[in-house]
Amino acid sequence: MALPLTFAEVKAQVLLLSRPLGTCAAFHQAVNAGDYPALIAAAMAVSTVDINPLLWLLKSGGVTDALISDVDQTALNAAGIYATGSVSLLNPAGDITIIGTAAVTVTLTGVNAVNIWVGRNASLVLEVNDTAFAEIKTFDNSSISITVNDTGTLCFTAKDHTTTIITINDTSNSTVEVRNYTGLTLNANGTSFAKVTGFQNAAMAINTTGTPTIIQTAYQGANFSIPTT
């Protein structure tokens, strides 16, 4: 079994792989990084649109899953990045990125809010309570289970074959968008509200109990099952 790469070796590989990507200021920041926290900060400084910087780098080849596995996991966790193992978080501060083989459980209470990115086959279990808010974006065969209770709010976007189960209860409010063969099961209960939009062959099954309000729209080959009571 090969020994893990040293920091210097990881940095050298990151610079070599990311040089063609034109990340400019973030690349300069990486050149001057003297430790893992600084190198991770450089990666997360990459300017992207509608995708987490680390996930963009992974998709673009600027870093690899193998390199991520050699990075100090404590430094990754400190930056809100989880790549391996199982972890439970209560009201985390700052954005969360979940990749690789990580399995993360997040519980939100009170008025707390969080942005979470999930990709590269990782899994997320999320519970939103009270008047908390979560914005979730998922990619790359992720596995997602979300429960929204009370008057919690969810904004959820899924791409790339993500498997998703969302349960909305009480008077909660959710906006859900699924794409690219994503499979969604939405269990709507109480007087909850959800706006659900599907694109590009997404498959969406909606089950209702109580008197929830569901606004559903399908485009580009997406399809809904008929809601049942």
From TrEMBL:
Species the sequence originates in: Deminuibacter soli
Highest taxon of source: Bacteria
Protein name: Uncharacterized protein
